[in-house]
Amino acid sequence: MRKGNATRERILEIAEAAVLAKGFGATSIEELIAEAGITKSGFFYHFKDKNELAKGLLDRHGEALDQLLVDVFGRAGELSDDPLQYLLVGLTLFAEHMAAMPGGHPGCLVAAMSYQDRLFDREFRARITTMVREWNDFFRKKLDDIVAIYPPREPVDTARLGRMIACSIDGGIIMGKTLADPTVLPEQMLMARNHVKMIFQPVAVHAMRAEAVAA
Q: How many C-beta atoms surround the C-beta of residue 182 within 10 A?
């Protein structure tokens, strides 16, 4: 990595930790400069203002999230080509990845910035909206693939169900941080996984299990 790129990445790394700890509004350029060990002109070489820093943070966060989805669900695709098992395995692997993070998930940058959206310009707010919609659509498309093969046990809106999965992740991050309990996030992801499984697991399987219990 070139020195200039390494400095920019260092600034973003420091800024992300500060934003997650106390919010974007309470994070000052001066503190970032001091911790990064650079001059003010060095900071403005990479970011012309604080709003540009916010865009850099969001882009970096989005790239990391995209790569995580590629890694986790790419592995799920290697393990199963059945759309239902693919999603169930992917959510399990995702939960395991989150559970293995030392100290738990550090927090959701999108959520932290959404709470202070008045600090940002229209372009930035549009970026956040697009990122959240893409996150929801990722799960909706996987659910659409499942519906094409597995009739749901009850009528289901895949867009709403996809949002529920996404909310279980963001909500798990927030609640886990609030309770200082890193197990909350993987727990909620597995709950969402089990919900999907109950909706789409073939009716015949449930009937057989009911008969076995009755016997």
A: 20
